[in-house]
Design brief:
The protein is an all-alpha fold. The protein contains 5 helices and no strands. Helix 1 runs antiparallel to helix 3. The mean pLDDT is 84. Bound molecules: zinc ion. Zinc ion binds next to helix 5.
């Protein structure tokens, strides 16, 4: 990946990270204030619905944040945007959708063919002695 693109992506990720942190803060603030609009809702199911939406959003933000943190961490290490399997560049388009992508599309696809599409790929940080044999 050329350095200009990398810098642009990093800027985008940092901006997104800030947005997400702000959203989370806002969310926590609402939780901390009993006088929030949630309490004023006459209909209980509405309040529950709002609570579930809030929970779902908060899970979603956490997930996105962790992806961004992984990506920024890898940028510092210099391994961002490089496939862990074949060392080729991961397309920027793919990184915008999945900033923490560890594999290029080819490797991802062949991995999914091996494991089945529903299998989540969990990569160990480093191979253990046993797995090398
Ligand atoms: Zn690859």
């Amino acid at each position: 990946m050329n350095p200009k693109t990398a810098l642009q992506l990093k800027k985008e990720l940092v901006t997104k990270q800030k947005e997400l942190l702000n959203l989370q803060k806002l969310n926590q603030k609402l939780e901390g204030e009993p006088e929030s609009e949630l309490k004023d809702m006459a209909d209980r199911s509405d309040a529950e619905e709002a609570w579930f939406t809030k929970e779902r959003m908060s899970q979603h933000w956490k997930h996105e944040l962790s992806q961004i943190n992984t990506a920024l961490y890898k940028m510092d290490l210099g391994s961002f945007g490089v496939c862990e399997e074949c060392d080729s560049d991961i397309p920027v388009k793919r990184l915008r959708v999945r900033p923490d992508a560890a594999l290029c599309l080819n490797c991802q696809e062949s991995m999914e063919r091996e494991l089945g599409p529903t299998q989540r790929i969990i990569r160990a940080p480093s191979p253990t002695a046993e797995s090398l044999h």
